[in-house]
Design goal:
zinc ion binding, Znf_AN1, 76 residues
Length: 76
C-alpha cells in the first residue's frame, strides 16, 4: 500500500496532515492540500489574484451590458 500523500503547504511549520482525495487539489495552482489548507486563501495561492481579476472583468462586462439609461422627463 503506497504512503498517504501529505499537505503541500510551503509555510513553516510544515503541515503533516493527509491530503483530501476529492477536494484537496487547488484548481488554481494544482497543489494538493489537507482540509485545513485546501482553500486558496489559506495556502497563499499564487493563482488566486489572476482568478480574482478574471472574475472582476467578467462581472464588469456583465454589468456594463445590462446598464440602463434613465430618460429625463420634461417638466411643464
Amino acid at each position: 500500500m503506497p504512503a498517504k500523500k501529505r499537505c503541500q503547504l510551503q509555510a513553516e511549520p510544515r503541515c503533516n496532515q493527509a491530503v483530501l482525495r476529492l477536494v484537496g487539489q487547488c484548481p488554481h495552482c494544482r497543489a494538493e492540500f489537507c482540509g485545513t489548507h485546501r482553500m486558496p486563501e489559506h495556502h497563499s495561492c499564487q493563482g488566486l489574484e489572476s482568478c480574482r481579476q478574471q472574475a472582476f472583468e467578467k462581472n464588469k462586462a456583465k454589468l456594463e451590458s445590462e446598464r440602463t439609461v434613465a430618460s429625463k422627463m420634461a417638466m411643464a
